Hints:
Blueprint: H1 2-21, H2 62-69, E1 76-81, E2 90-100, E3 111-118, H3 121-137, E4 141-147, E5 150-156, E6 160-167, E7 170-177, H4 186-197
Helix pairs in contact: 2-4
Amino acid sequence: xxxxxxxxxxxxxxxxxxxxxxxxxxxxAPAIPTxxxxxxxxxxxxxxxxxxxxxxELIVPVEVVGKHLGRAVPGQVTTIIGVPEPSIARTAKxxxxxxxxxxxxxxxxxxxxxxxxxGDEASARERVSAGVEAEKQEGATAAEVDxxxxxxxLISTAGERLLVGVLGKTTFVARAKVGYAPDDRMTAFLxxxxxxxxxxxEGS
Length: 204
C-alpha cells in the first residue's frame, strides 16, 4: 500500500509539475481597423487683375448665371468688344449682354456684365468714382458691399441695380434690371457674378 501511495504521489507531482511549467498563451489585443478619411479639395475662387478675354463664356458662363439666378437663362448672349479710349486711359473693354430675347436688340438685355482695363490703377479707380458720382447726381443711392475680398459699390436706381468695383487696373460692373432677380437676392446675385467676372475660368 505504501508503495502504491508513493507511486500515485509521484504521478500527481509529475502532472502538477507539467501544468505549472506549461506557458500560458499570450493575450492578443483586438485588431483596430484603419479608417481612411477622404479629403476633398475645394477650389476657392480668387479674384485677380485679369486679362480681358473676348468670349463672355470666359467671363461669366451662362450656366453660372443660371446657377445663381436659380433658373434657366433662355436668351442669347451678345459680346461687345470696346475700343481703347486714350482720353480716359482705357486700353480695353468687353461687355456681355445676357438673356437677349429672339429678335431683340442687345440693349434690351436684362443683365449686363462688363470689364474694362486701364493704363494704371489710378485711372481705373477714377472711372469708378466718377461713375458712382454721376449715378448719385441722377438720384441713385450707393452703398459699399463686399465683393469677395474686395470692396464694391451697389448702386440702386428706379429701374436697375448696379454693382461696380475695381481691382488693380481693371474695373468690373454687374447690372440687372429690377425684377430680374428677387429683391432679397439681388445683391448676392450681382456679387457672385462680379466675383466670377474677375476670376479666370480654369484652363483659360
